[in-house]
User: Which sequence fits this backbone?
């Protein structure tokens, strides 16, 4: 028998849960795309997007997913034959590097594995070795969605400054924006990319490239920038269509307006605190499940470097796959797959999975997630330690 009837819970690391208010705002006839309300609403998005990114710089909106934002950022920071440095702590850093290579941009990758954060000392060493200053940009993931590591982006800026290197600092915040603390200007980030489908609580389909004055100047030195990815018309459009290099993502704009209103109402400090508390509830539960004969482990051991929006876990094959299938089919809970975490012993990554706890989530949803996973562990007779639900409840109770 299945108990999955009713509203399902998509607890993957994006797309995240979409608020009813956002869905209702999007459920409307298509508007006039030449004048009137839509233009006014689009213009109103920019200050609030800057608030979320904690920047006084610029933000360009693209009809694209996170991969599109990667390409847009690259198209405006470098060109074929240039060199960039990529600090890799998971699949998504490698994905960004692969797009660069396909654009003819040379990549130097510093591999930190999938269990450890960036060590800025190695980045500084690579920059000092670049005596001819050929490296045009350093790319980092603030949170790599696959490994759930949260990197210290500011430390990379300090490394750049320490060796007086002119390279731009670019950060992928697709999984972290409006979930994990991020301060673009204070941390010295030149370019930042994000998507609509995670902390911003809007369906996939639009993405963002933030950049500062320094990056804007660098872009003007490029020999060419493709028409679609060029951020210059998007930040200073002479006509409305230039915001998007064509037809606007109409329904997404209405949804994003409501989502940004919700973020403003709650406030970033409160949003970050909520994500912190709910993440700690999950970590406490996992630590209990891993006691005794339990095999469940958090991928990132040092809690300082754990994302507050996504948690990657291992439990051993085939338990990860079996648990994901059970909670979805029997209880209506969908967990994230183990992405880029396979090993010679587990080539399909069946021993890994992820919890997404980003955006429009609250305490009862997280407690429901934990309780449902506990039920799955029991139903499948997967070894696990006791006390997970109690430990999570205490984390929430102590914080309220």
Assistant:
């Amino acid at each position: 028998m299945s108990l999955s009837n009713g509203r399902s819970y998509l607890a993957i690391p994006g797309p995240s849960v979409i608020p009813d208010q956002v869905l209702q705002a999007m459920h409307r006839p298509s508007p006039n795309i030449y004048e009137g309300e839509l233009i006014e609403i689009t213009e109103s998005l920019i200050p609030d997007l800057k608030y979320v990114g904690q920047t006084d710089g610029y933000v360009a909106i693209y009809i694209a997913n996170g991969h599109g934002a990667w390409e847009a950022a690259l198209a405006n920071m470098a060109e074929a034959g240039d060199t960039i440095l990529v600090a890799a702590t998971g699949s998504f850093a490698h994905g960004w590097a692969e797009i660069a290579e396909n654009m003819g941009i040379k990549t130097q990758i510093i591999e930190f594995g999938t269990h450890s954060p960036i060590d800025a000392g190695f980045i500084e060493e690579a920059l000092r070795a670049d005596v001819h200053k050929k490296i045009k940009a350093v790319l980092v993931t603030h949170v790599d969605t696959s490994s759930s590591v949260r990197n210290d982006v500011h430390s990379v800026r300090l490394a750049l400054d320490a060796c007086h290197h002119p390279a731009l600092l670019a950060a992928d915040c697709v999984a972290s924006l409006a979930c994990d603390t991020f301060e673009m200007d204070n941390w010295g980030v030149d370019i930042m990319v994000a998507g609509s489908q995670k902390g911003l609580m809007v369906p996939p389909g639009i993405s963002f490239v933030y950049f500062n004055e320094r990056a804007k100047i660098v872009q003007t030195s490029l020999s060419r920038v493709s028409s679609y990815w060029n951020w210059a018309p998007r930040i200073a459009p002479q006509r409305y269509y230039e915001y998007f290099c064509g037809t606007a993502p109409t329904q997404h704009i209405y949804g994003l307006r409501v989502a940004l209103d919700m973020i403003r109402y709650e406030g970033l400090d409160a949003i970050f605190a909520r994500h912190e508390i709910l993440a700690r509830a999950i970590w406490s539960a996992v630590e209990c499940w891993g006691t005794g004969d339990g095999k469940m482990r958090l991928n990132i051991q040092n809690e300082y470097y754990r994302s507050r929006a996504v948690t990657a876990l291992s439990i051993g094959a085939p338990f990860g796959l079996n648990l994901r299938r059970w909670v979805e089919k029997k209880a209506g809970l969908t967990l994230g797959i183990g992405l880029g975490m396979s090993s010679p012993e587990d080539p399909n990554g069946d021993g890994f999975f992820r919890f997404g706890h980003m955006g429009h989530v609250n305490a009862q949803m997280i407690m429901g997630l934990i309780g449902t996973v506990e039920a799955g562990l029991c139903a499948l007779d997967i070894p696990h330690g006791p006390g997970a639900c109690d430990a999570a409840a205490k984390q929430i109770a102590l914080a309220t």
